[in-house]
């Protein structure tokens, strides 16, 4: 066991605290990781506000890269010294979803068995089973994906959550390819990542939609070919017009990614699709939201697919090393997502930054 500093949310709505935590030595199937960087995500704030569950105290942080310090005796997938990106999808290989080949739907993903604790022994609940806003963290070995050590930790650590969710929404769930059109509604970190994923695939046009002009400028930097300020213009009509300019007869985009998580924007995404197009919902709705009241004939008549994308339908072992290599080749600008490098003591301030301004991600550097 060792003691390190970590960012803990002790009770609902209260500001986070930097406290000493106990990190056990890794047991079977576990690894201790020395954290190099960890992004501050909306989900961390959501934990602090009690919006996920009531299992306080939480050890926050889950968008992280680090160096494996020690592993349990039986662990062979990673070794001390490996540079890894942490993930919250360490698949079990045994459940029904894994056995039928849908590993990204695994029902029984692994986390560490032992608990990290406060100094008084109170067990901590690590955010998304990771808890990486700490100098060191204990995770399941399967939560560590080894990637090229030459990559900048602050940038590639973001693959651990929101950036992967967005890229995967376009590539894995939407199946976007060269020769297809895409529109992305909502261009925060997740939506802009979907734009970057579409650019990687060679999609065209890539239409970014937001109500904030600063977000549209970021989307352009990451590969959007067109932007629509939906506080000024009807995004459905504009998407249809832009797609018809590129592909004669098109009545919308082949794929529309909804990255806000609201009924109004889901409805826009539904109608902005070309016939037989795919709607990908990656924005997370609140539990009280309902599917908009649509004529069933419109669902039938447009055909296509209405999908949701959970962590970008990613498989960390397949997707993280590939995306890190594309980053190192200069083809995926993960640096653009790091809008601020901060210290562990600045996490509470980063929650404020999230709500106003140009921020995509504030990243704690250790
Ligand atoms: N139309 C278009 N864009 C909108 C609208 C709207 N009506 N309302 C909000 N937006 C934009 C915001 O301006 C912002 O750029 O949606 C974006 C949301 O981005 P963030 O708040 O930064 O969230 P992000 O991290 O990208 O996550 C998006 O996915 O993972 C989930 O919980 C997360 O639901 C959230 C969503
Ligand atoms: Zn499984
Ligand atoms: Zn996250």
Automatic annotation (TrEMBL):
Domain annotation Alcohol dehydrogenase-like N-terminal: ranges: 27-147
Keyword annotations from UniProtKB, A to Z: Metal-binding, NAD, Oxidoreductase, Zinc
Superkingdom assignment: Bacteria
The name this protein goes by in its record: S-(Hydroxymethyl)mycothiol dehydrogenase
InterPro entries, per the entry: ADH-like_C, ADH-like_N, ADH_Zn_CS, GroES-like_sf, MycoS_dep_FDH, NAD(P)-bd_dom_sf
Domain Alcohol dehydrogenase-like C-terminal: 189-326
Oxidoreductase recorded as keyword: yes
Source taxonomy: Bacteria, Bacillati, Actinomycetota, Actinomycetes, Micromonosporales
NCBIfam families assigned to the protein according to its UniProt record, in alphabetical order: mycoS_dep_FDH
Family assignment from sequence similarity: Belongs to the zinc-containing alcohol dehydrogenase family.
Keyword set includes Isomerase: no
Coiled-coil features, chain-numbered ranges: none
Cofactor requirement: Zn(2+)
